[in-house]
Amino acid sequence: MNASGDFRPGEVFSLRLCAFLGLIVVALAFLAVSLWNIQVARGARYDDDLARQSIRRVRLPGIRGMITDRNQQVLADNRASYDVALYLEEVRQPGPWTRTIDHVEAIIADLSRILLLEPEVTREDIQNHRLRRLPLPLTLWKDVSESTIARLVEQGSSFPGVDLTVQAVRAYPQHQLACHALGYVGRMDPPKEDEPYHYYLPEMEGKAGVERQFDPVLRGEAGGRLLRVDVSGYRRNDLGSRPPARGRDVRLALDLDIQAAAARALGEVPGAVVVLDPNNGDVLALVSSPGYDLNTFIPSISVDAWKALLEDEQTPLLNRAIAGGYPPGSTFKPITALAAFNQGRVPLDRVYSCNGSIQVGNAVFRCGHRSGHGTVGLEKALEGSCNVYFYDLGMDIGIDPIAHMAYAMGLGAKTGIALDGEVAGLVPDRAWKLRTLNDGWRDGDTCNVSIGQGALVVTPLQMACITAVIANGGTLYRPRIALGTYDAENQHFQAIPPEVLNRVTIDPPVLRAIREGMRLVVMSPTGTGRNAQVPGVSMAGKTGTAEFGPREARRKHAWMIAYVPFEAPRYAIAMLVDEGLSGGTTVGPRLQALVAALFAPGEGAG
Amino acid sequence: MNWRSLFSPFKRLDPFFVLATLGLIGVGLLFIYSASYRAEEGMLTAMTRKQMGWALAGLAMMFGVARYDYRALMGHAWLLYVGGVVLLLLVLIAGVKVYGAYRWLNVFGIRVQPSEFAKLGALIAMAAYLAHPSRRLEDPQTMAVVLGLCGLPFLLIMQQPDLGTAMTLLPMAFMLLFVAGVPLRSLLVLAAIGLALLPLGWWIIDDYQRERLLVFLDPGRDPLGAGWNKIQSEIAVGSGGLRGKGFLMGTQNILGFLPRTVAPTDFIFSVIAEESGFLGCLAVLCLYLVLFASGVRAAWRARDLFGRLLAVGMVSLVFSHVFVNVAMTIGMMPITGLPLPLISYGGSFMVTTLIGFGIIQSVYVHRITR
């Protein structure tokens, strides 16, 4: 160094200065490599972390398809429900949560005055919403009226963050009609999924009837919405959404007009009506009385209303047509006849003498006609519903062919109609009695079954099926509740074909005789079903009066089955009144009303 | 005097150094804007405006200082040093408490951070001491005095407490000794003693600093408390990917996961990394490399040892800030409240850094021309 301190030429070079620069270069290179590792090599992992903490998936329920009758008249549809909702991210207050909650309460109070609605959301609800569903709007009032909407539109502009949201809710324009067949919907539990959503919007699922059986078809595809939330959990913006897909429509076999006529004909009494098309098993009407208005289940049924339905002695929730088990009474007699005369087991011209009762063992079995029918053949026995004829006929052939024929006609087994809650009923036979009562079969048992009493249990639907088999000459169809499903989007109709459960071979002369006997039931002035006569309409039928209850307080189920027109049957009908005087007097006029409606000019059904 | 003569001293400035400085300040303003952006505030946020003011003031001082001969500092070194120490004492007595530490002094309503000025004072004092013509570098006494000069402000800054800022004094002192030519053996002994004493630091540092250290060792510890910034910063950096999410599009910052209080300051590099990706980070690191390399060039071409040491000390000071800040942002070092030079929001640090750069440029301007 010289005196001024300047470097001398030899001192300028410094290895250490090079080392210093080298250290800096190495350190910066180290940082660059680390950054590459984090941002490029392992970037995806951090993307996942980022998504996990700031992205929320919301499930958007699919839109349920419609349910229509066979002529595409709407039975179940969706309507728009307008809710008043508050977007919390727009009214958030800085500072502790209580300030935001206070603010929300104040907004609700102000809105309540303007909309003339009592607040429905409590402070607790707001707190729960904040903890569980903060990024979603808070619903303040559900399904508000048009006048409320008008008031909100007029005066709501001074409320930032308040808006109307639209929900599709189920609507049943026919209210009570076909309620048992349609079933109802209820709130669905969040589905278990591989990639669960963070939030679920209320979604309906079918809980009974067609709504339940066809739920996977009706439901459609759930959509989704991606939200971005900030560090406090408020919604920041939407990242995108996949709209939910509408479910397929279900076109029922029901005919709204026939259903309405059947319900009207039955009236207010507890009972059931089933109308089938004997040519393919289509369920044209399925009535159970009493019913309920399906709209009380929307958006959800109140606890009180549900309790009332459950505790009602007339069991409105029971679908009597498929879930009600009744003894068939005399409507069973055609089956006894078929069992006896088919394949020549008993000659068709066999006659028995009726003097009002017969004695079997120690028991006396009575005929409905106390003074007796005299000597009767098959047709007269059916027309007058002579019990003694069928006691004798039954004892002549024994229980086995009767039970066999009953099974062949579909009794003792579910028809497999696409509705829930169907019961199988019961056909008693030797094995059954041994199994359940540990007792041998007796002639008395055969007498009872021959006239549709004893342990025999059937449903109105099963009796309608049997009527259809007699009407079409031997084919047992599975009752078809739906014709098919329809995709409104691409107008694709997928048919549900008719299904044959069994073909019963019936000798034509036997069939002719039974049909004639059944024709006389209605058409003859002395027939038990003459009350059902409709001028100008030829039909065949059979009445039934089945006793039940304790011996000292006997009550009667009143039945009638019928098919019409006689020559080329289009309708097979079973009608039941839970408690009546007799099939002829209680059901006859009701059946008459139904058939008259079916053939009334301009009704379309004629 | 015509305008040419007014600007003639600037002709000798190092254009690489000046451009890198301006570039980094520009990057800083952009991302302070992004980190403090609110839709309602419009084009310029209050933070961006303030930072622009500080940057302009700092640049004016840098060019001003560059015009004067740094050799004049040699005579006033002790004065600057004592001034810095007095300021540090003042801050302990009359400082403003922010986030639990007394680091700021109120001067006519402006909050300044005396530790930044004190570091500059310490640098000048150490350089002047080492460069004195009578100094014998082999003498252990020389090293002891330098360590003493460094130790006093170190301990005072630790008292605030501001561990990060205090720590940057140590590599600076070490590099001054190294470049000045202290024998390697002495330096190795010094480094060994330093490393041996490191565990003792555990008892010296505050609880919150211990917590930061524990969080660094175990990221799962207290993820919603002390670990939050570290985790969120890493997510921001990592999710930036190769190209980033775009300017003003960094969701970690927008959604508040990266807290608003630290995004424009200590964690500004997270915002840069998230929005501009690896390529943007690389560009920023390259600008720093140009800056450091031209700083070292100034040291290389310095007229005398004092100038060389001033340049080396300043480069080493800024470099330790850059390294520690970036390493902390990407989770490779414990969290320390060190800002990123020229980029992080903050007035005192911007101005003192640019004054230091002025000194480097003064060294370069007054270089030996051959």
Principal-axis shape of chain B: globular
Instruction: State the helicity of chain A in percent bands.
Output: 25-40%
Strand order of the largest sheet of chain B: 1-2-3
How big a fraction of the residues of chain B is strand? under 5%
Radius of gyration of chain B, rounded? 21 Å
Give the strand content of chain A. Answer: 15-25%
Q: pLDDT below 50 for ≥5 consecutive residues: which ranges of chain B?
A: none
The greatest interface between two protein chains, and residues involved on each side, is:
A-B, 40 and 51 residues
Instruction: Please report the total strand number of chain A as a whole number.
Output: 24
Task: List the keywords.
heterodimer; A: 606 residues; alpha+beta; Penicillin-binding protein 2a (Domain 2); Beta-lactamase; seven-stranded mixed β-sheet; five-stranded antiparallel β-sheet; 35% helix; 22% strand; B: 370 residues; mainly alpha; three-stranded antiparallel β-sheet; 67% helix; globular
Could you characterize what this model shows?
The complex is a heterodimer of chains A (606) and B (370). Chain A folds into two domains: 56-252, Alpha-Beta Complex (Penicillin-binding protein 2a (Domain 2)), CATH 3.90.1310.10; 256-598, DD-peptidase/beta-lactamase superfamily (Beta-lactamase). Chain A has 20 helices and 24 strands. In chain A, strands 2, 3, 4, 5, 11, 19 and 20 form a seven-stranded mixed sheet that branches. Chain A has a five-stranded antiparallel sheet with strand order 13-12-24-23-22. Chain A has a four-stranded mixed sheet with strand order 7-1-9-10. In chain A, helix 12 packs across helix 15 (399-408). Chain A is elongated, with a radius of gyration of 37 Å. Chain B has a three-stranded antiparallel sheet, with helices on one face. In chain B, helix 5 packs parallel to helix 7 and helix 5 (114-131) packs antiparallel against helix 14. The longest helix of chain B has 33 residues, at 268-300. Chain B starts with a helix and ends in a 5-residue tail after the last helix. The mean pLDDT of chain B is 88. The chains are: A alpha+beta (606), B mainly alpha (370). Chains A and B meet through helix 1 and helix 2 of A and helix 7, helix 11, helix 12, helix 13 and helix 14 of B.
